[in-house]
Amino acid sequence: MPSDSAPLGTPSKVTQGSPGFPAQGGIGESTLRPDGTLKVTGEFAYSSDLWHEDMLWGQILRSTVAHAEIVSIDTGEALAQPGVHAVMTYDDLPTEVRNYGLEIQDTPVLAHGKVRHHGEPVAIVAADHPETARRAAAKIKVEYRELPVITDEASATAPGAVLVHENRADHHISHVPHPNILHRQPIIRGDADEAAKGADVIVKGEYHFGMQDQAFLGPESGLAVPEEDGGVHLYIATQWLHSDLRQIAPVLGLPENKVRMTLAGVGGAFGGREDLSMQIHACLLALRTGRPVKIVYNRFESFFGHVHRHPARLYYEHGATSEGKLTHVKCRIVLDGGAYASASPAVVGNASSLGIGPYAVDDVDIEAIAVYTNNPPCGAMRGFGAVQACFAYEAQMDKVARRLGMDPVAFRKLNAMEQGTVMPTGQPVDSPAPVAELLRRVEAMPLPPERQWESSEGVDVRQLPGGLSNTSHGEGVVRGVGYAVGIKNVGFSEGFDDYSTARVRMEVVGGEPVAVVHTAMAEVGQGGVTVHAQIARTELGVAQVTIHPADTRVGSAGSTSASRQTYVTGGAVKNSCELVREKVLDLGRRRFGTHHPAWAAAELLLEGGKVVTDGGEVLADLVDVLGDEAVEVEAEWRHRPTEPFDPRTGQGNGHVQYSFAAHRAVVEVDTELGLVKVIELACAQDVGKALNPLSVVGQIQGGTAQGLGIAVMEEIIVDPKTAKVRNPSFTDYLIPTILDTPTIPVDVLELADDHAPYGLRGVGEAPTLSSTPAVLAAIRDATGLELNRTPVRPEHLTGTA
Hints:
Number of strands: 31
Number of helices: 18
Distance between the termini: 59 Å
Largest sheet: 7 strands, mixed
CATH class of the domain at 49-147 and 219-266 and 273-305: Alpha Beta
CATH topology of the domain at 49-147 and 219-266 and 273-305: Aldehyde Oxidoreductase, domain 3
Shape: globular
CATH architecture of the domain at 49-147 and 219-266 and 273-305: Alpha-Beta Complex
Strand order of the largest sheet: 4-8-2-15-12-13-14
Helix content: 10-25%
Strand content: 15-25%
């Protein structure tokens, strides 16, 4: 199949500033997203909409048990079904490389010898119709011999425990005390035991954080097209094209230049697309059959096809003086990593290094571990380890304040970190850390009116707990207010070579100077394509900017995760634009000569399609400077380096940047029925510099809503006896709808980080941290209950749990 035979639904270049898309502004202006209208009207092409005239449909057979030996697999009946073109199991894989993984290659492409979690891929089928493929997969006979399941730390580390992975040989094994412990990171600074002797109050707590699904709207999907040179072109919804490429090519036995990848339309991600899902399976079937193969998960499959947020057990001890100063913090964080490693080591690193929150404490003793179990694999999700820790340490801060008889906000302000504070890892915070100011701002916001469900026209049940189910008219409803603040790192940490690449081209098209920006950044809804155009307009002075579809024909942009893309890929676009600008100016010097002294001056600028001096003197029009030439630069850009945490003490400059957000939650609780209505979730957040203020507010509100979900409704339920998922659907796994989403006023603070492009600070994750504990704090305020787990269920509020 020739490479230029693109399937229907393939993304095309978007020119911002062309007819039908009026020119928007530069950095600091609220610009509209080029894909916004298309998504609202249903015209946007997602990866599940891809179509090729002669394509086949792929289907995956998944295990029905969580832990078992595979005794036999019989594919005969499936192969005999009319319309089936291929059936593949582990034995049919083309190379000796049969595992993959983000950090540790412990995940088999197809199960071999045994299955380790409910829903693990066992076989794949290609057929000429999706229903034929599903029926064929159902006819594959797999005989299992079930094994004991490991479901928590106790069963994982018990004497004689079954090993989830029998032959571990990875670089983390030396750091852990048991083969079923995937990773361990202590953080030790000062002497917490000695400091505890000076505490007037010591508060302990145990907390449980539930397993959360990313709940993105577009299930996993993609289309693999075989190429004439023996390679394959994969059109895929992912978060990191080059990471996928690195894992896919060895399994296929192909060099990376024969595995071409183009980003298809992505319907959300939130970490759930960092790991591979159907990528290798679609490519294997396409190469086996010589036909394009499309795979689209249904929602049931999607719950098994991607990782989830780690459930956690968290054990905390805080000490404080009678005046309210924290003396020490001790904590132990146990994350359930599930059957395969995914991003668990990095999640452990974040949970431990951010485990005491945005507070100044000299003496800390932290341990975080991730455990291998037979539960569903867990990995990246928005907030990435810091979310679980924030839930626990903020609950502790409220408890300590209550024991001291202090206002919880005043207690937090008294202990708030600031620029110059030394983190538990020994790393100084060298950019603004306005924790106390954010708390002050969110506390100062006007509270919503009392009993707002009442009006002259009667009771509006939509504003009451239970909503349109009409369970209450205000009887037994109590209001509560709660606060929380969190800290989240930005970018990849612990010595990871975190960089991005951007190719920028400047030329004259139709009598106007135009910039073309090409990166491999995955646009998953965060609005990066808009920001890239804003950067190009700001740096190059052009009105029209074309954003090239993301693919692997340009260098890696890294993952769209860790709140890093605007920082790192935005930094790469800025860097490449600056290099293009220098080349354009050099072209102008050569074309017009150096008779004008300003051509040699360093202050030359490009503004509004003209070359001007810093004083505004126009030297030439860019059309005249460029003529029929094009100037193009592709360059990598890196932020300042980080270093690994010491495996024994956790010391090290492990993070690039920190972001901070504070929330105030207002809830109303029907204490008789156990129902909660979140009325408002006000947020104050420092964003460094709002490159696109409209988009920034949207990111903050979106993250806030996800924190609301895990507070009061979202949890994947895993049977503790069988390790099977009990609610893999949006019928039984609940996510907030518009009726559940409260008012979310946002106060944006802009304190520039001098180390970052334009002074910006990553935005998307921080509000997910503090919104959850703020809601729990408000419910505690309304009910007086302890409430040490998420999500809060009605039985926890009525005493029937």
